[in-house]
């Protein structure tokens, strides 16, 4: 009797069928100085200048978004470049926007936050994504004793 093998793919909990579900427009604002934009930059319909428009799905990961930003931003391709992500969303009690940091990725280093999805981070359609890009020279030199090895963290992912 011949042996048969069964290969099963593990599906992410929040994954969707990208062939059947229409993507949504994600407005991404990139800052290359290592700091996020201020909430006041988003007031009264105004937005910061450096905008990328990405069509994506709720199951897109921070790593996927990082790859898309690197395609249009050559200086962000250097190994060790840090991408700090923040969600920008309206405060429905006041006519202002709030900013909430949601994760960080580093070019050339795999980390646990690479796999975080937009849906898992509670990003809603219509929210903005603010990405602060920090070159490797800037953030590595200011963190003495920092190891880029993400496996050494003591907290569970």
From TrEMBL:
GO molecular function: transcription corepressor activity
Biological source species: Phyllotreta striolata
Protein name: 18 kDa Sin3-associated polypeptide
Domain of life: Eukaryota
Family indicated by similarity: Belongs to the SAP18 family.
Record-level GO cellular component terms: nucleus
Entry-linked Gene3D superfamilies: ASAP complex, SAP18 subunit
Pfam families attached to this UniProt entry: SAP18
Keywords: Repressor, Transcription, Transcription regulation
Keyword Flavoprotein appears in the UniProt entry: no
């Amino acid at each position: 009797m011949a042996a048969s093998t069964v290969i099963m793919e593990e599906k992410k909990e929040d994954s969707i069928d990208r062939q059947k579900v229409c993507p949504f427009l994600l407005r991404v604002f990139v800052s290359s100085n290592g700091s996020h934009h201020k909430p006041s930059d988003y007031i009264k319909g105004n937005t910061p200048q450096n905008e990328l428009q990405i069509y994506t799905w709720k199951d897109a990961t921070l790593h996927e978004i990082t790859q898309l930003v690197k395609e249009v931003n050559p200086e962000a391709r250097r190994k060790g470049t840090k991408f700090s992500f923040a969600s920008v969303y309206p405060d429905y009690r006041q006519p202002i926007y709030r900013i909430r940091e949601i994760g960080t990725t580093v070019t050339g280093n795999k980390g646990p936050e690479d796999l975080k999805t937009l849906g898992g981070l509670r990003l809603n359609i219509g929210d903005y994504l603010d990405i602060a890009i920090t070159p490797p020279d800037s953030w590595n030199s200011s963190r003495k004793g920092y190891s880029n090895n993400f496996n050494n963290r003591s907290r569970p992912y």
